[in-house]
Fold this protein.
Amino acid sequence: MNFTTRLVAFNAAPRDPFRPTATPIYQTATFEQDDASAFGTYDYSRSGNPTRRVLEDLVADLEGGCRGFAFASGLAAITAVTRLLKPGDELLACEDLYGGSFRLFSRILAERGIQVRYTDLSGDNPVPVSPATRLVYVETPSNPLLKVCDLRRIARDTHAAGAKLCVDGTAMTPYLQRPLELGADIVLHSATKYLCGHADVTAGVVTVKDQSLAEQIGFIQNAEGAVLGPQDCFLLLRGIKTLSLRLDRQQRTAQAIAEWLAARPDVTKVHFPGLRAHPGHDLHLSQALGPGAVVTFETGDPERSIRLVEALQIFSIAVSFGSVGSCATVPCRMSHAPIANADARIARPASTPPPDLIRLAVGIEDAADLIADLARAFESTREHLACRSRAVQGVCP
Ligand SMILES: Cc1ncc(COP(=O)(O)O)c(C=O)c1O
């Protein structure tokens, strides 16, 4: 079956005698056993739950992986993967990445004796592994600058060094990009974003390429226990059914918005891999089906950027993306504040998101309405800027 069919036509309730077409929510902590000497398929919901297993099998199928695992959040999923590392090992991460991942790597992993190094892995940049590198961690397109990394090449170089490649595929989802097919060993998502699609669940999923990693992540998931509850698994299963429909619409609108922004003289830079002018455009389309629906841009004026985001009426100011509802943020002050405000003594990327960068997470609303909302906001900030310059000259209150 093709991908979009598999989003819907999965076995919703294996072995359920009533054959429901939606997955039942097995809201139970324990499962009664036949006898005291051996466990049945399920015994305790931290170790395994039928609703969660349907979700995990679906995600593994969509990614082309060997086994999937569902966690209580994207960061819980990332944490589980970092448990593969031991003191003295090195994590080599792309330098443009989600602020919460940076906080986990530079604050928590460093305390566990794991070395962390950030480097720009986009384009043709080399993968500067050291003898201690055990895990290379990549976002592509990255959040928030939408830099594009060559997954095939990075996988080759990572494996040549005896390390594993983990890709945070949140911005793409398996509909647009399947890193395991491009050579990665592990792919994970903040399922809070597109997989859920409705901003009403926090969740994370990990899919691994082979049985050995499946055993390791399965052990970590059970031993540490940050599993996703059955209700949330159900909501994710429901959300995933419309993934391709939502993303088709969202990325079409994102493309229109990116082109509209790129034509404005008061926008200094637009980051969107769907634009031909984007340095990673061709590379991105060689490894993904579409550009996604996150657009970031710069105005050249941090204060104007904040005013612009605050003036939007349809886009809400909310630190996420991937929902049916559009949102806007100033990453440097919000999702990426942990990087921007980081202590200079800890491992940190060489650069931080520019202070005037705005991130738009495009939803499913009417494209013309969203562009009109942006146009109105630009207009109102233009008036503000004019007033501010008159105030400097003493002619405006
Ligand atoms: C790219 C990316 N990865 C991981 C995460 C963390 O996921 P969660 O918020 O579900 O813990 C986020 C959250 O915004 C993200 O943007």
About this structure: The mean pLDDT is 95. DSSP finds 13 helices and twelve strands in the chain.
